[in-house]
């Protein structure tokens, strides 16, 4: 930046470098999405198109920023975990928040026609973002457990609420009154006894949210076979929806022993994988423990 007599104004800029050696969780939420979903005719209680669009934007963020190892999303919200040692933008909070939020928002708008081909945007959507720092692995696990537990609570309520309105013929006021004071067991009973809905059989995407994980590919696999390996691990996603990142470009035919040696010494090959699973219990963290290792 060129110097001039006006450059003194930079002294008014406050440093906002985030504490080092801490886990960084970036969370964004849709701004006024109750109105946005109504204006664009989202299906209640869950609109698969809208959720897939959110997933697409989240995956794009992970493709752009390799320090993001995990993402969890539900409804109009997404949380991203960055490596403890990340030096992204020199850990400047405003830079990270503004850039990640703007990229997610632009991806959401850019890919809107793919998921809503017959619904033009009536006005631009917006998202707000924030960063929270956590000192240890336990807080990180508890954070994502909190978000998934919130997903279950909200979706169970909304599923019961909209069943009462759409199938039961109640007004929204009456539906809220029926559910007031009920616990999880009561909502399950309402859904099953009145509408024949077994909540536990609903799509896990709605009940558990979406999880993107940067999964490690076994080191002996080549770039070609890695695609086959990860496709087998995540059968619900087509190959062109996955994103592979391998540090040494090699095909199945030309992988040499020297290449394999270099791979072992270099970065571990990874691929972004989408799941709709339980991230509260230990099973997930035992399988993907590398996420919390620096």
Describe this structure in words.
By secondary structure, the chain is an alpha+beta fold. 43% of the residues lie in helices and 15% in strands. The chain has helices spanning 33-39, 48-64, 93-110, 112-115, 137-166, 172-179, 184-195, 204-208, 223-233, 257-265, 282-287; strands at 23-30, 68-74, 77-82, 127-134, 210-216, 243-245, 270-275. Strands 4-1-3-2-5-7-6 form a 7-stranded antiparallel beta sheet, sandwiched between helices. A hairpin with a 2-residue loop joins β2 and β3 (77-82). α5 (137-166) packs parallel to α7. The radius of gyration is 22 Å and the shape is globular.
Trace the largest sheet across and list its strands.
Answer: 4-1-3-2-5-7-6
- Arithmetic mean pLDDT: 88
Determine the fraction of residues in helical runs and give it as a percent range. Answer: 40-55%
Could you describe the largest sheet, including whether it forms a barrel? 7 strands, antiparallel
- In the predicted model, the low-confidence regions spanning at least 5 consecutive residues are 224-264
Shape verdict:
globular
Number of helices: 11
Radius of gyration: 22 Å
Distance between the termini: 34 Å
What is the strand tally? 7
What's the SSE pattern?
EHHEEHHEHHHHEHEHEH
| Structural class label | alpha+beta
Beta-strand fraction estimate? 15-25%
